[in-house]
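step: validate -> pass
step: tokenize input -> pass
step: predict -> running
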Amino acid sequence: MSITSEFFHPRTILARVLIVGALGALVWAGYNGHLVPVREFLNDERLTLEFMEYKISPYTVLKGLLIIFGFFWVSSLVSAQIEKRIAGIARMRVSNRELLSKAATLIIYFIFFVAALDMIGIDLKALTVLGGAVGIGIGFGLQKITSNFISGIILLAEKSVEVDDLIELSDGTQGFVRHTGARYSLVETFDGKEVMVPNEDFITARVINWTLTNKHGRVEIVVGVSYGADLDLVHKLLLEAAHEHERCAEFPEPVCYLDGFGDSSINFTLHFWVADVTEGRRGPKSDVQFTIWRKFAENDIEIPFPQRDLHIKSAPKGLLREPRDDASDAKAEDKP
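step: predict -> pass
step: emit ->
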């Protein structure tokens, strides 16, 4: 952890004791008049600037920085304690805890910020002008940031995408949601990559959530058999291969369909479900296909290769040469 992070967000007891001691020493010195010479020097007219109806001196700047830092530090401690209390509520869902923590943090920081401005001596009416400027800035430069922030709040409120959900985005990104922040959501893909997806993409684009209401997932296997195969036996073996797998769900039950008569094979489609899609679907699909292969081999059921029949109705003249008699050719060559 960096020095700056430890200074503004103290985690250890020693850091907190040092900060409390420094602030206490400043308060004690000011209360006993030890800082009067420093205040008079920093409030000198020669060092004071006038801006509109305000007088800005090094003393007012230093005082404002100390007050803002003090309130910021206290508000960080208060918000951290509130977040710990909210995180300990086991009966509340993770998304609700995140939403409540963010709302509490924003409210605490806003209250302490307004209180700090009032102690510094800044007229709060001037915030209306500042608010208008901020609104213009949001409308132009901060549009995407604001959109992502609001989208994050919508996601937490709607619970359409939560932490540990298995999702698939429109660009093909698949993985588990590990964190939902103010600007982006962190998606961990199957190969270990961590993709930071803007929250706006979850609202404006199409998103597949494999675990929104349940964790069931369907596996599809397409297989073709030769025209000489026993179709009833093929149907039975396919269902047996699915039922024998340990991750095959009992409900919905596996089903097998005869899809159609192809050029080289009769095509079947096998559907079976796994109870927990977060554990993967490719493994069960591979295992069932190995079982199908063994069962077909034991029952002499052939999976045919593609076949094509080529018929030549006519050919250009001279393309097909007539067979030559080698003996006659040899005699012709012997002639002078």
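step: describe -> The chain has three domains: 35-122, 126-213, 217-298.
step: cleanup -> pass
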